[in-house]
Amino acid sequence: MRLLSIQAGRPQALGRAAACDWWERPWTTGFCKQPVTGPVRLGRANLAGDEQADRRHHGGPDKAVNAYPAEHYAFWQRELGLPELARPAFGENFTTAGLLEAEVCIGDVLALGTAVVQLSQPRQPCWKLSRRWRIPDLAWRVQQSGRTGWYVRVLREGEIEAGQSFELIERPYPQWTVAAANDVMHVRVHDLAAARALADCPALAASWCESLARRAATGQIGDASARLTDPEAPRELA
């Protein structure tokens, strides 16, 4: 797997207070990232120069960096009728090439530059992806498609640079590909045994462990509407 490009950015306030069109009204996001050239410091919490607008649901040790495969862009360009869609259209820090969700696993330990990272969970897209592209159900479509990308935690801080290749150091849980984890969380939602098995994966992000353990114990799937739906959206767009 190769790192095609690195993107970083700080939260921005977008829109206009007096806008008649709801899509043009004010909102704040760290989604609009810009390419970074040259060496970049990768720290425990995030990339140098990168921040999240919503620190409650984004960022942190288990979600230090979001990676998205470049191979998915052609699909979304066709699916959405947006031939101009270009990276980082999904707000990713890393745009990668060479491996997809069915080929990388929770717990994979990877060397990149002088840093070492570990794959921690699939990405769960939120409503800000939909808001960015003015497609109300886009976050849900990305989630259900399995073309989600993934997050990594940083095991060793270091310097990284676009164009470098990832080196697989360890694969302790080959049964838990990102695709398999997405399937348990979003498709096989009534398979409580699978939920328990995935929750017991030591390398899985804490928030996913908690959610799946609760599902396995109670049978309650959980409501994703708060993540997928903009709380300020008009009813017809919710």
**Secondary-structure class:** alpha+beta
Query: On the 0-100 scale, what is the average pLDDT?
Result: 93
* Secondary-structure element pattern, one letter each: EEEEEEHEEEHHEEEHHHH
Radius of gyration: 18 Å
Strand order of the largest sheet: 4-1-7-6-10-9-8-12
Domain unit count: 1
Can you tell me the CATH architecture? Beta Barrel
The CATH topology is M1 Pyruvate Kinase, Domain 3
Number of E strands: 12
- Alpha-carbon distance between the termini? 37 Å
The profile of the biggest β sheet is:
8 strands, mixed
Q: Unreliable segments (pLDDT under 50, ≥5 consecutive)? A: none
CATH class: Mainly Beta
Percent strand equals 15-25%
The CATH superfamily is PK beta-barrel domain-like
What is the quaternary state of this protein? single chain
Helix content: 10-25%
